[in-house]
Amino acid sequence: MWHEEVLIDIPREKMKPLWLFVAGMWIWLFWACAGEWATSSDYSYGWFVPPIALYFLWKRWEAAGRERWKEDAPLAKRVLAWSVLVLVLFLIAPLEMIRQTPIYWRPILWAIGGLTVGSTLSVAWLAGGPHGLRTFFFPTTFLLVGIPWPTFIEGAISFPLMQWVTGTSLGILHLLGYPATASGTTIALSNCTIGVEEACSGLRSLQTALMVGLAAGELVWLTIWRRVVLLGVAFVMALLGNQLRVLLLALAGVKGGAGAIEQFHDAAGYVVLVVLLAGVGLATWGLKSRGVKRERATVAEVGVIDRSVKRGGMWLVAVMGFAAFLGAHGWFWWHGEMSAKPTAPLLAPSAGAGFVVDKDVPKGILDVLRPDQFRYIRKLRENAPPQVVGYHFYWNPKSGNANQLYHRPDRCMPGAGWWIDGSVMREVIHLGSRDFDFNVFPFRRPDGVALMLWGAFLNGEPVEMEFNTDVYLNTATLWQFLRTGTRVHSFEVAALIMPYEEGKRPSLAEIQAYAARVFSVRGEGG
């Protein structure tokens, strides 16, 4: 068991350069993830991961005791450890350069996480052999739970969860005698609707459950299999808590309408946390190992140390690592004058010709997207409230805006019961005195068909998208961003839904006329 191992007395002065390098890698990983921790409620728990990992490292160090190193490490394992460090040095600069561009690829964050884990465990081996490796293994790999999941994994998990939560909630409401119907992942009640969006899917709960389950198992030193059982309990508690949250919100909506849902939305979110912590706490207490004795290894059992490399070589690794990181930023500083400059909003939603514009955007959407300017576009209807048919969002110039590209129509519209039925076309729409590139999505759901015009503009230029992949921007754009040093940018999104009769798809001229009724060029009208 891990707590029966010992950590050797690492020669601090000799290894200091490599440990400084490792500390820099940890800081790099935290910095890379901090933007999403700060802006995404799904990953706000990530702020707790670094201090918890450091605490576990300290506890393992303290519990292991101190012994002296005995002999040199085997050559093959020394070569492997140093090979990992050399590979890390070569990858720091290109990964940081890509991370700085407006292209938002979560696999880049995972690559940085992999480099951090690899470099830390390599240095732990060189300093302490197998005992050093085992002492650092869990605290280091625990850092990975704070990295945002790749979007293809999120999509594969969140949408089935949303469907499951929607279906289960609908069934319970019917059992309780309340009329309700579902369209996609939206539940229509007698007096309002409740959307089971990504935040309500249970994905956030599962991510938090992973962190809590792993932390609890380490805190009381459970065996591996008991930790697996504890993770299973944590996941079940997360799903049950989230299901209870959605049901409570639905019942609040039945009694008090949309206002009640808005009022109790955040409070209901705490239900998930309470259920999760209570369930994990009870399971941890039940699984906790009792009567386990700690054993200290003798000097003959102590790990090994690499004596072959001089301190000069270790300082070279540390200096090259920091130089690679600074070099990546230096490229953008040097080429910044070549990049396209951030722009003010290009378009403005118009209030006329059967449409109204307001700022009544749901708080949940604003909390996720965090736009600096926002408007909803609603179509007037006889004897019915205006219907939301479009929106316009704008983010002020700053780095980190590109993660909003995750919220694209092909990912978000299925939650409202729409699915893409055909190819996504790119059309030029003439508005005022200018032409604008819009993506035209053909959507369908059981009660009808519609086109959706969706335009995204980065620094005033249309963003090329690949909607059939999990890569948000066209990869050719990456080289343009690198060449011109683009990393600070404004971002603007304009969208409009255009319903039509089955078999009578609008022509490009009709699409353009419809868009011109809603959007105008900023400064030219509207």
Blueprint (SSEs and pairs):
Layout lengths: L6 E2 L3 H28 L9 H16 L1 E2 L7 H26 L5 H37 L8 H25 L5 E3 L2 E3 L4 E3 L7 H17 L4 H64 L23 H25 L11 E3 L5 E4 L4 H7 L3 E9 L2 E15 L10 H4 L6 E2 L4 E7 L2 E12 L2 E11 L2 E2 L12 H10 L4 E12 L7 H9 L2 E3 L5
Parallel strand pairs: 1-2
Antiparallel strand pairs: 3-4, 4-5, 6-16, 7-8, 8-9, 9-15, 10-12, 11-12, 12-13, 13-14, 13-15
Structure write-up:
The protein has 526 residues and is α+β, with helices and mostly antiparallel strands. It folds into three domains: 2-148 and 308-337, no CATH class; 151-287, no CATH class; 347-521, Protein Transport Mog1p, Chain A (3-Layer(aba) Sandwich). The chain has helices at 12-39, 49-64, 75-100, 106-142, 151-175, 203-219, 224-287, 311-335, 363-369, 409-412, 475-484, 508-516; strands at residues 7-8, 66-67, 181-183, 186-188, 193-195, 347-349, 355-358, 373-381, 384-398, 419-420, 425-431, 434-445, 448-458, 461-462, 489-500, 519-521. Strands 7, 8, 9, 10, 11, 12, 13, 14 and 15 form a nine-stranded antiparallel beta sheet that branches. The chain has a three-stranded antiparallel beta sheet with strand order 3-4-5. Helix 6 crosses helix 7 (224-287). The N and C termini lie far apart (69 Å).
